[in-house]
């Protein structure tokens, strides 16, 4: 997957007016503004003061700030990964974005539609037409076979039996469960059950896909295969994806941007390159300290468009680690960097790249 423009539209931005000769930025798929979810005796009262309360103040009054004043905007086709320690609010945030959990305050729009203003029927329609969800606990129907589980959302959509069966078999094969169509969930391992959950969600080809640790029960080899499969699908289908994971490597492989949560708030939301190069807070700095930065940062992120250099350009989508040999063997101060179309992205300072390369050395 290619890195997208790191400058995502601000949370409140309407579709940007296009400059003459430029295509308009697409309207965001999901926007949330000032989103809160507070648990406790009086959530609304706890937020009623003139200024938003701190996490500490909320806890002192017996409340849990599960999501704290989150504003973000997700572009169509973007893969946003939500990371953070256990209890930092990842699941609650993602469930608020699909309104599986009712937020205490704030606004959410999905394709321009006011999610919190929808009545029950409107919400069901929006979920059915646009949203797919895969959660940690799979939520499979125990008395239905794999095939019936996967075909279930198609049945809900009113699709004909033959068509349901064809599509279900297709996605069952895709997730590597061919031959187990007639098994019941209890006859499958945890990882296999999780794949049924993924297949069921894929069957309806949602535009927006919420995934809460979908690969956590898979063993490492299969997990990597599923990630590859996932990237392949995403390349083809270009869905808008919000993906929760604990695993930084997984986040780096899959994400266009990562949101790092702490105590219900989003500490930083940015490309992996920028997060490791410019952590916005002490917390993010600590969170990313152990990461091998040269494996994360791409040449494009170090390229200065104002600089130019002679010689064979390095590809902008190569990581600094992958360019290690060239960096060490070169004696040039500046190395040219090119985009996928061969266009110059400027040049990077070799010493900056080497600093990143050797910062990771033990
Ligand atoms: N129904 C609830 N009632 C009270 N507190 C809750 C409830 N649901 C979640 N919380 C609290 O909200 C906070 C955020 O929980 P959440 O499940 O969103 O975290 P998470 O980052 O997804 O954690 P994990 O990685 O362990 O799944 C936690 O402190 C949790 O205990």
Task: Walk me through what this model shows.
The protein is α/β, with parallel strands linked by helices and 362 residues long. It has a domain at 295-359: CBS-domain, CATH 3.10.580.10. Helix content is 35%, strand content 20%. The chain contains 14 helices and 13 strands. The protein has helices at 43-46, 55-60, 90-97, 120-130, 146-156, 161-174, 190-203, 220-237, 248-254, 272-277, 282-288, 299-302, 324-329, 350-359, and strands at residues 30-39, 64-74, 79-84, 105-110, 113-114, 131-134, 208-212, 240-244, 257-262, 265-270, 314-315, 334-338, 344-349. The strands form 3 sheets. Strands 6-7-8-3-9-10 form a 6-stranded mixed β-sheet, sandwiched between helices. A 4-stranded antiparallel β-sheet has the order 2-1-4-5. Strands 11-12-13 form a 3-stranded mixed β-sheet. It is globular, with a radius of gyration of 22 Å. The relative contact order is 0.12. It binds adenosine-5'-triphosphate (ATP). Adenosine-5'-triphosphate binds at residues 39, 64, 66, 84, 86-92. The site of adenosine-5'-triphosphate has 11 residues, from strand 2 and helix 3.
From the structure above, extract its key features:
362 residues; alpha/beta; CBS-domain; six-stranded mixed beta sheet; four-stranded antiparallel beta sheet; binds adenosine-5'-triphosphate
CATH superfamily of the domain at 295-359: CBS-domain
- Relative strand content: 15-25%
Largest sheet: number of strands, sense, barrel closure:
6 strands, mixed
Q: How are the strands of the largest sheet arranged?
A: 6-7-8-3-9-10
Structural category is alpha/beta
Q: Bound compounds, please?
A: adenosine-5'-triphosphate
Please write the CATH class name of the domain at 295-359. Answer: Alpha Beta
Q: Please report the number of helical segments.
A: 14
What is the molecular shape? Answer: globular
- N-to-C order of helices and strands: EHHEEHEEHEHHHEHEHEEHHHEHEEH
Q: Would you tell me which CATH topology of the domain at 295-359 applies? A: CBS-domain
CATH architecture of the domain at 295-359: Roll
**Mean of residue pLDDT values:** 87
* Rounded radius of gyration (Å): 22 Å
State the end-to-end CA separation: 30 Å
Low-confidence stretches: 1-17
> What share of the residues lie within helices?
25-40%
Number of strands: 13
EC number: 7.6.2.9
Subcellular location: Cell inner membrane
Organism: Paralimibaculum aggregatum
Protein name: Quaternary amine transport ATP-binding protein
């Amino acid at each position: 997957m290619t890195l997208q423009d790191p400058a995502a539209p601000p949370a409140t931005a309407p579709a940007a007016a296009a400059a003459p000769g430029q295509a308009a930025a697409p309207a965001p798929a999901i926007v949330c503004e000032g989103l809160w979810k507070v648990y406790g005796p009086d959530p609304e009262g706890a937020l009623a003061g003139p200024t938003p309360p701190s996490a500490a103040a909320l806890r002192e009054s017996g409340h849990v700030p599960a999501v704290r004043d989150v504003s973000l905007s997700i572009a169509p086709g973007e893969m946003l990964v939500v990371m953070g320690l256990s209890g930092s609010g990842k699941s609650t945030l993602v469930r608020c974005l699909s309104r599986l959990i009712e937020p205490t305050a704030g606004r959410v729009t999905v394709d321009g539609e006011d999610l919190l203003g929808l009545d029950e029927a409107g919400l069901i329609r929006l979920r059915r037409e646009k949203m797919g969800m895969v959660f940690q606990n799979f939520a499979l129907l125990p008395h239905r076979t794999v095939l019936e589980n996967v075909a279930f959302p198609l049945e809900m959509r009113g699709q004909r039996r033959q068509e349901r069966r064809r599509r279900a078999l297709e996605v069952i094969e895709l997730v590597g469960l061919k031959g187990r169509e007639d098994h019941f969930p209890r006859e499958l391992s945890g990882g296999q059950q999780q794949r049924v959950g993924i297949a069921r969600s894929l069957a309806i080809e949602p535009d927006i896909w919420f995934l809460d640790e979908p690969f956590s029960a898979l063993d490492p080899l299969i997990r990597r295969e599923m990630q590859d499969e996932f990237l392949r699908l995403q390349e083809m289908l270009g869905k808008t994806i919000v993906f929760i994971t604990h695993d930084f490597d997984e986040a780096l492989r899959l994400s266009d941007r990562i949101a790092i949560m702490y105590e219900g708030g989003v500490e930083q939301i940015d490309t992996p390159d920028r997060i490791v190069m410019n952590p916005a807070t002490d917390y993010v700095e600590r969170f990313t300290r152990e990461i091998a930065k040269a494996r994360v940062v791409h040449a494009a992120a170090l390229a200065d468009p104002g600089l130019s250099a002679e010689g064979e350009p390095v590809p902008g989508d190569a990581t600094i680690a992958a360019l290690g040999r060239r960096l060490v063997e070169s004696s040039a101060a500046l190395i040219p960097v090119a985009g996928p179309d061969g266009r110059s992205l400027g040049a990077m300072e070799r010493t900056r790249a080497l600093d990143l390369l050797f910062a990771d050395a033990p």
